[in-house]
């Protein structure tokens, strides 16, 4: 086997890139920042780190960062660059100030690690100021079209699953029904994965607006089959959430239920290997995309390869949940 060629051609003459993290943090964002910094350095390109996402870009909160600044970060959750949901960036004036800061810092291209809200911000910067931007999918929700998975999703699933396993212990001991809410404002990807891996009785996701009342029959059947305790998974975005499902069960069956809303715990912690590897690959690919002269696209992973998807498609086209998993969850709850 020959050594891989590690230097990438630089036809666009890229000299300096900026990188920021934006929106909800996701485990693996640090691994992505590290990959950007080290890929750029390896190819003789400087990196400016922007703190607090687009808010920091607007305020000019920026500094040159190098490979040693990202040492010992690949295993850390959160984001060393900090993140924010910026209001100033929603106005053209706010974005103009940010574009000026990038020019003042002699930055040739911006890499934005975040979800669809962050990609909107990057897209407008490109449209209004012609500034080269590349998106890296970083969100636990896994809800971006054009990539099989997003950075942080795998870790969030493991964290939620660990909680489900623990709740199952106490649920079984008390012969209770546990209704567990996982994150996913508009998407049921985490919920479906956790439902199958956690052996749930039923799962509710925003992509399927089935009526909540159906759960009453499911719980009654489970009781008739001799199941004294059950786990029900509800995605945050399902109308009424876990509280609504729990109320329906209690009113329809008289059974004792408990609700557990896992919340932000799913966003923290050490990224699992799949998130670290995905982040490393996509951080590298983002720098290469700028060097190749690409802009206004997200780098993603599809079927083992790197994809480049126009940013607007990542939110305009809907990424469906895995319907096979949905079916499997139902089949196995017999
Ligand atoms: O987008 C990631 C996410 O964790 C969603 O699942 C959740 O609805 C939202 O962020 C919560 O956002 P915040 O941290 O601003 O409350």
Automatic annotation (TrEMBL):
Chain residues that bind ATP: 24, 85-86, 115-118
Positions of substrate binding: 139-141, 176, 183-185, 236, 258, 264-267
Documented activity regulation: Allosterically activated by ADP and other diphosphonucleosides, and allosterically inhibited by phosphoenolpyruvate.
Catalytic activity: beta-D-fructose 6-phosphate + ATP = beta-D-fructose 1,6-bisphosphate + ADP + H(+)
Domain Phosphofructokinase, chain residue ranges per copy: 16-289
Localization per Swiss-Prot or TrEMBL: Cytoplasm
Residues noted as binding Mg(2+) in the record, renumbered to the chain: 116
An example Gene Ontology CC term for this record: 6-phosphofructokinase complex
Recorded family membership: Belongs to the phosphofructokinase type A (PFKA) family. ATP-dependent PFK group I subfamily. Prokaryotic clade 'B1' sub-subfamily.
Name assigned to this protein: ATP-dependent 6-phosphofructokinase
């Amino acid at each position: 086997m020959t050594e891989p060629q590690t230097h990438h051609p630089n036809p666009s003459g890229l000299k300096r890139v900026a990188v920021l993290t934006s929106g909800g943090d996701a485990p693996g964002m640090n691994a992505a920042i590290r990959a950007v910094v080290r890929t750029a350095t390896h190819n003789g390109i400087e990196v400016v780190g922007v703190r607090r996402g687009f808010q920091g870009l607007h305020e000019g909160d920026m500094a040159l960062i190098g490979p040693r600044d990202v040492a010992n970060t690949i295993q850390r959750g959160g984001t060393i660059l900090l993140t924010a949901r910026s209001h100033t960036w929603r106005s053209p004036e706010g974005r103009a100030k940010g574009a000026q800061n990038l020019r003042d810092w002699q930055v040739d291209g911006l890499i934005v690690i975040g979800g669809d809200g962050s990609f909107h911000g990057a897209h407008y910067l490109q449209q209004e100021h012609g500034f080269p931007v590349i998106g890296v999918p970083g969100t636990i929700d896994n809800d971006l079209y054009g990539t099989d998975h997003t950075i942080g999703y795998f870790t969030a699933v493991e964290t939620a699953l660990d909680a489900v396993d623990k709740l199952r212990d106490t649920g079984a001991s008390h012969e209770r029904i546990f209704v567990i809410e996982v994150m996913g404002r508009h998407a049921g990807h985490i919920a479906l994965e956790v439902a199958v891996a956690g052996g749930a009785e039923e799962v509710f996701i925003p992509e399927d607006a089935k009526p909540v009342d159906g759960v009453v029959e499911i719980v009654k059947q489970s009781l008739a089959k001799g199941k004294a305790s059950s786990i029900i998974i509800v995605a945050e975005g399902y109308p009424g959430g876990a509280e609504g499902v729990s109320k329906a069960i209690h009113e329809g069956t008289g059974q004792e239920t408990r609700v557990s809303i896992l919340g932000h715990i799913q966003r923290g912690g050490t990224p699992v290997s799949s998130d670290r590897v995905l982040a490393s690959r996509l951080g590298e690919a983002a720098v290469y995309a700028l060097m190749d002269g690409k802009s206004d696209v997200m780098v993603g992973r599809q079927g083992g390869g790197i994809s480049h998807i126009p940013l607007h498609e990542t939110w305009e086209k809907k990424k469906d949940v895995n319907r096979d998993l949905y079916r499997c969850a139902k089949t196995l709850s017999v």
